[in-house]
Design goal:
The protein contains 19 helices and 15 strands. The protein has 463 residues and is of the alpha/beta class. Helix 4 packs across helix 5, helix 5 packs across helix 10 and helix 10 crosses helix 11. The chain starts with a strand and ends with a helix. The structure holds pyridoxal-5'-phosphate (PLP).
C-alpha cells in the first residue's frame, strides 16, 4: 500500500515510511492511495475475534508487506495486553437505542492509548530495521501527551518533546505527563492555546534547519498509523451490534477530527455505518463548516472538555480531500487561502460528499452537564465531559428504527473529576492502575508560545 499527500506534491511513501513521518513535505497529510474494502462475508467472518486478532485483520491491508500477518498480530497482542479490560474496548448499553463504547481502559485513561500503545511499538520496530533515531515533536490538548509519553518513555532510539497549553489541561492530565521520569521525555508548557502549540509543531516539521539534523516524527493524529488503529474499534462495536447485517451509527466527541475520520475510513472499507455524528463543544468551527460550509477559525474558548478546545482541526483536510474528488492541487490552493485569512468556504462537492454520512451537533456547557446527569440517573453510568458532549449530540439525531447509536466514550470520568462532580455530585476515584500520581514530583519547562522559543529549545535539548 502506498500513501499520498492531500496536497498532491510530496513523494508517495509505504507504510513504514509514513509511520516515521510527520507532515508531508508539501504541508499536506498522508492518506492511502485507495481504500481497501471488505465484502460482507469477510466482515461476517470477523465476528467473535479477540480484539488483537480483529485489529490485525482490519489493519493488514494498510500495512501491506511492511509487516507479516504474524508480526502485526504479535504487536497488537503486546499493545492491547496493557489494557485493564479483557475486551479492550467494551460496549455498554444505556437504553434501548444508545450505547457507550468505552475507549478509556488503557494506561492513561483516554482513547489515545488505543492507537499510541501500538504506535510506540511500530516506531521501535521500524527504527530497529532502518537504524537511526526519531525525535517526536507533538502538541497536546491533554490526552495525546500523556498517552504518547507513556508509549515511548524509556524506549530505544526515540525521544519526545511534548507541548501543552499552560494552565489549560486538567490536573490529572498534567501530572500524567510531567511526573514521568525518563531521560527521553521533555515536557514543555507554552503560554498560549492548543492551536498555538499545534501551529508551532507544524512549522517545526517544515523547518529545514531542524529536519536536516533530526528525523522528526509525529504522535498527533496527523500520523496516519494513529487513525488506522482507531478504525478497529468501529469494526469491533458494529460487529457486536450485528454488522454486516445491521447498520450502526456513531457519535464522536471531536477536536482534531481524527477519531471521527477513522469512522469515515471504516465506512469506506465497507462497514455499514448509517451516520457519523460530529459532536463539538462551543468551539464549533466543525459544526459551522458541516452545517453551512463556513470554515472560519475564531478564538478558542476554554471549556470543561479541553481535549476538544480546538479551532483548526488537522484531519478535516483529509476529509475534504477524500470527499472532494482527491484533487491535491485544488486543495493546496484552498488551504493556502485558509492559512492566510483563517477562513474558507467549503466547495459544493465537499459539502455534498461530507453530508452523505456525516452530521454535526454543538453542545454548550449546560447541555454537557445535563447529559452527564442523565447518564448517571437513568443508566447508572458516570461519563466524562467529552463523552457527555457526544451523548448529547447522539440524542439530537433521528435514526431509522432498529439502528443502534454508539457514543464513543473517549475518556475516563476520573480524568475530569471537577466537572463530573459538579454535574452529578459524585467525585470519581482514579483507578489504581495509574498509581500515586499526585505524590510524584513534576518536571516541565515553561516557554513563550512562539515558534523560535520552541525551535531553539529542541535544538538545544535533542540528543
Ligand atoms: C483527543 C480527544 C478528543 C478529540 O479527538 P479528535 O481525534 O482530536 O477529534 C475527544 N475526547 C477526548 C477525551 C480526547 O482525548
Amino acid at each position: 500500500m502506498q500513501y499520498v499527500s492531500t496536497r498532491g506534491r510530496a513523494p508517495a511513501l509505504n507504510f513504514s515510511a509514513v509511520t516515521l513521518t510527520g507532515l508531508a513535505a508539501d504541508g499536506g497529510l498522508y492518506l492511502p492511495e485507495r481504500w481497501p474494502t471488505f465484502a460482507p462475508d469477510q466482515i461476517a467472518a470477523m465476528r467473535g475475534l479477540p480484539y488483537a486478532a480483529l485489529a490485525q485483520k482490519v489493519m493488514q491491508p494498510f500495512v501491506g508487506t511492511c509487516l507479516s500477518a504474524d508480526r502485526l498480530g504479535e504487536l497488537c497482542e503486546q499493545a492491547y495486553a496493557r489494557f485493564a479490560h479483557k475486551a479492550v474496548t467494551p460496549l455498554v448499553q444505556l437504553d434501548q437505542r444508545d450505547w457507550l463504547l468505552e475507549l478509556f481502559h488503557g494506561p492513561t485513561l483516554a482513547f489515545k492509548d488505543v492507537a499510541l500503545q501500538l504506535l510506540g511499538l511500530l516506531f521501535e520496530e521500524f527504527l530497529a530495521r532502518e537504524g537511526g533515531r526519531l525525535t517526536i515533536v507533538g502538541a497536546t490538548s491533554g490526552d495525546t501527551g500523556s498517552a504518547a509519553i507513556d508509549a515511548v518513555a524509556g524506549r530505544e532510539n526515540v525521544e519526545i518533546f511534548m507541548l501543552h497549553p499552560k494552565g489549560r489541561v486538567s490536573d490529572v492530565q498534567r501530572v500524567q505527563m510531567t511526573t514521568v521520569r525518563a531521560p527521553n521525555v521533555h515536557n514543555i508548557a507554552i503560554e498560549g492555546s492548543f492551536d498555538d502549540a499545534q501551529a508551532i509543531v507544524k512549522r517545526i516539521f517544515a523547518e529545514e534547519s531542524v529536519t536536516a539534523r533530526h528525523r522528526i516524527g509525529a504522535v498527533n493524529s496527523i500520523n496516519w498509523a494513529r487513525l488506522m488503529a482507531q478504525v478497529v474499534y468501529y469494526f469491533a462495536a458494529a460487529l457486536q451490534l450485528g454488522a454486516p447485517d445491521r447498520r450502526a451509527a456513531f457519535s464522536v466527541p471531536t477536536g482534531n477530527f481524527g477519531d471521527v475520520f477513522a469512522g469515515h475510513v471504516a465506512a469506506r472499507m465497507g462497514l455499514p455505518i448509517e451516520k457519523l455524528v460530529v459532536a463539538t463543544n462551543v468551539n464549533d468551527i466543525l459544526h459551522r463548516a458541516l452545517s453551512n460550509g463556513d470554515y472560519s477559525a475564531g478564538d478558542v474558548t476554554p471549556t470543561a472538555s479541553p481535549s476538544m478546545d480546538i479551532q483548526v482541526s488537522s484531519n478535516f483536510e483529509r476529509l475534504l480531500f477524500d470527499v472532494g474528488g482527491r484533487d491535491g492541487a485544488a486543495l493546496a490552493e484552498q488551504m493556502r487561502g485558509f492559512d492566510a485569512s483563517r477562513a474558507m468556504q467549503l466547495t459544493d462537492g465537499q459539502r455534498t460528499g461530507a453530508g452523505e454520512r456525516i452530521v454535526s451537533v454543538r453542545a454548550d456547557a449546560d447541555q454537557m452537564s445535563l447529559a452527564m446527569r442523565r447518564a448517571w440517573e437513568e443508566s447508572g453510568e458516570l461519563i466524562d465531559p467529552h463523552t457527555a458532549i457526544g451523548l448529547h449530540a447522539a440524542r439530537c439525531v433521528d435514526l431509522p428504527p432498529g439502528v443502534p447509536m454508539v457514543t464513543l466514550a473517549t475518556a475516563h470520568p476520573a480524568k475530569f473529576r471537577d466537572p463530573v462532580e459538579q454535574a452529578t455530585g459524585l467525585r470519581p476515584g482514579l483507578p489504581t492502575r495509574v498509581g500515586d500520581l499526585f505524590a510524584r514530583e513534576e518536571r516541565y519547562d515553561v516557554l513563550p508560545g512562539t515558534y523560535e522559543a520552541v525551535r531553539d529549545y529542541i535544538m538545544d535539548h535533542a540528543a
